[in-house]
Amino acid sequence: MTTVLAHVHPGDTVYGQVGDASVPLRFGDLPDEYQVLRDRAALLDLSGHRLIEISGPAAVDFAQRLLARDVEYLTSERCMMSLVLDDSGQVVDQVLAFGRENGLLLESSVGAGDRLIEHLRANNDEGVEITDRSGDLTVLGLEGPYAWGVVGRLIDGELASLPFEAVADTVWNDVEIIFARTGFTGEYGYQMIVPIESAADLWQASLEHVTAAGQEALELAMLEVRQPIPRLETAGGANVIEIGANWLVDVTKDEFVGKEAVLAAFESGQGRRTVGFSGGDTVPEPGARVLAGGEDVGEVVLAVRSVGLGATLGLARVDAELAAAGLEFTVEGAGVTTLTSPYIVPKSWSIPII
Amino acid sequence: MTIDELRAKAAERQQTCTQIKKMIVSRLDLEIEPDWITDDQPLFGRGLELDSLDVLELYVAIEAEFGVALYDSEMAVFGSVSRLADEVNPQLKVTA
């Protein structure tokens, strides 16, 4: 699936295939795009996120059973991030669920739409309508410590101060859009769900106030605040407990697909745990061995060059008794130090919306 | 460091984190087991979804439990349980 905004992106945009979607990895220079996101505000092409409408009389019951968090009372003014699990407790996807009058709208993570739809349809015991809306709707994002100012100039200042995960149906340029306060990076974040035929106009209008950033800058900023990136973190069959995404699962809920498996994994205390690390002059590949005191205690899950830290930043999955910040490990012959999350403190935490 | 020394160091942090998690669950009357909260998960907005009233409650609880006053601290100290552990047990603090 190619981005619906390809015709308005610069000719030298670098695209990459992420799951079932071809997305802009960067429009120019990664460090510049990252810095825009962390220091000012970045415009994001989130068209690789699939929009799936769940409707019909049993829509809420269905979503309540399929999503790992409690969406029973999710009104049309709220959205919520949740994992979707299979029976074995493996992560199918991390979704944003929007309450809608006739059911829910689910937004997949990037490139995971096909997998999510297939899972939803295979588990449709309630006979709900599952409609892929990505043919007529798409998503644009704004993230950064001053993203709220862009919202004010672009649409309406009052929308900027919506509470986290609040949703408003609003109008931009005579076009009805769904506007939400969200965020993946710890910075102020907003999403605009817009009809595809108006997406290019909204993108261009946004660019009058803000600079575009690609998927690489977004995922780097996500990693820095330990926002899960399931497609990268669940490789090798790691479960919810091992990736540390417990907060995207509500175990107080009576029932949901995967609950028993997740609880069993939690109560067993078995398996490894994930911890951030920094150090070394190179960026190790996933699977690189992690040594502690000369013993093999785990492996690298993912690693990148962090613009914010000016160093290699990664996640390692290690024996649970060693999953703690402040330890010296060795990866590919280089010393690394395990870290306390967040690895970069978002500037938005010290900047009020005015 | 030997692996036993690393294990001991990790255990000290995990012990402080466990103490903080128990305090959060007890003071905020949460319906989850303390260990369900991970050391790295965000506490405000995303994650545990605490709000500003919860922060006030935690300020008081932390001072009572650990004898540390965080009233003038930046929000970053609540970035995660592990970050909070650095504040209430300064021996743990990481320089990265």
Automatic annotation (TrEMBL), chain A:
Domain Aminomethyltransferase C-terminal residues, every copy: 272-336
The terms under GO molecular function for this entry are:
methyltransferase activity
Domain named GCVT N-terminal is located at: 18-253
Report the SUPFAM superfamilies cross-referenced here.
Aminomethyltransferase beta-barrel domain, Folate-binding domain
Question: Is Methyltransferase one of the keywords UniProt gives this record?
Answer: yes
Q: Which UniProt keywords apply?
A: Methyltransferase, Transferase
- Does Cell membrane appear among the keywords? no
Q: Which PANTHER family match?
A: AMINOMETHYLTRANSFERASE (PTHR43757), AMINOMETHYLTRANSFERASE, MITOCHONDRIAL (PTHR43757:SF2)
Q: What is this protein called?
A: Aminomethyltransferase
Identify the InterPro entries for this entry: GcvT/YgfZ/DmdA (IPR028896), GcvT/YgfZ_C (IPR029043), GcvT_C (IPR013977), GCVT_N (IPR006222), TrmE/GcvT-like (IPR027266)
Q: Could you state one GO biological process linked to this protein?
A: methylation
* Phylogenetic lineage: Bacteria, Bacillati, Actinomycetota, Actinomycetes, Streptosporangiales
Automatic annotation (TrEMBL), chain B:
Q: Which Pfam families match?
A: PP-binding (PF00550)
Domain of life, source organism: Bacteria
| InterPro entries the UniProt entry points to | ACP-like_sf, PP-bd_ACP
Q: Which residues form the Carrier domain?
A: 14-92
Q: Which SUPFAM superfamilies match?
A: ACP-like
Specify the protein name: Acyl carrier protein
Origin species: Acrocarpospora macrocephala
Source lineage: Bacteria, Bacillati, Actinomycetota, Actinomycetes, Streptosporangiales
